[in-house]
Design brief:
With 223 residues, this protein is mainly α. The chain has nine helices and no strands. Helix 3 packs antiparallel against helix 4 and helix 5 crosses helix 7.
Length: 223
């Protein structure tokens, strides 16, 4: 009986030991399986992309800036030259037929004599209509243009040996237009130019006497 008990105990212990060994083996197999599964999941997972510093982009920007700097230094941008303001064309819708025709003849003149004759006619018409402010101002504005035409006409006369007498009528009219407009100094200057060319205004005292009258008118206007 005792022997059976001892044998039974040995059998129990042997079976228990085998069970523990089997359990240990199963546990290790399970852990290994889990470990392999995790390893496979990690292997299958997409690798995390580490953001690289944008060296290339920065380099491109630097290169572009350097290129622009070189271009700006190489190419000199031409500054727009200041544009000369052109004199506004005078509106002559108020001009009568005589003035308009005279100006048309001046524009179509073929020589210095025709130009001089046309501008003299234009000044004469403005002188006649000087009570109108438009004719008064426009007539005197032709002074410098007339003086240029006069000098060209003198050269033309010399070249073509023209000996007719030149009248100082246009100088007288320009002086009157300037005086009536209150430009006394300019009126005196016109008279002096007529005197330099030994012209007469058709009066007894000539342009010298006219200058004295202009100076008196100037003193009266200043008083």
């Amino acid at each position: 009986m005792l022997l059976l008990i001892i044998v039974g105990v040995f059998v129990f212990l042997y079976m228990r030991k085998n069970n523990e060994k089997d359990n240990k083996t199963m546990t290790e197999d399970t852990n290994q399986t889990h470990s392999e599964a995790e390893t496979e999941q990690v292997a299958d997972a997409e690798p995390v992309k580490v953001a690289e510093p944008e060296v290339a982009s920065t380099q491109n920007t630097v290169d572009e800036n350097e290129h622009l700097a070189v271009v700006e230094e190489t190419l000199e941008v031409a500054e727009p030259e200041p544009v000369q303001a052109e004199a506004s064309s005078v509106q002559l819708d108020w001009a009568n037929t005589n003035l308009t025709k005279a100006l048309e003849l001046q524009n179509t003149a073929s020589n210095a004599e025709e130009t001089y004759s046309a501008i003299t006619a234009a000044i004469s018409e403005c002188y006649k209509q000087r009570k109108s402010q438009q004719y008064l101002i426009y007539g005197y504005s032709l002074a410098s243009e007339y003086e240029k035409a006069f000098e060209q006409y003198l050269a033309y006369r010399s070249e073509n040996k023209i000996e007719s007498v030149i009248k100082g009528t246009a100088f007288m009219q320009l002086a009157t237009l300037a005086q009536d407009n209150g430009n006394f100094e300019q009126a005196i200057e016109v008279c002096n130019k007529a005197i330099d060319h030994e012209l007469t205004d058709g009066t007894v005292t000539g342009f010298a006497g006219r200058i004295k009258r202009i100076e008196k008118a100037k003193e009266k206007a200043s008083a």
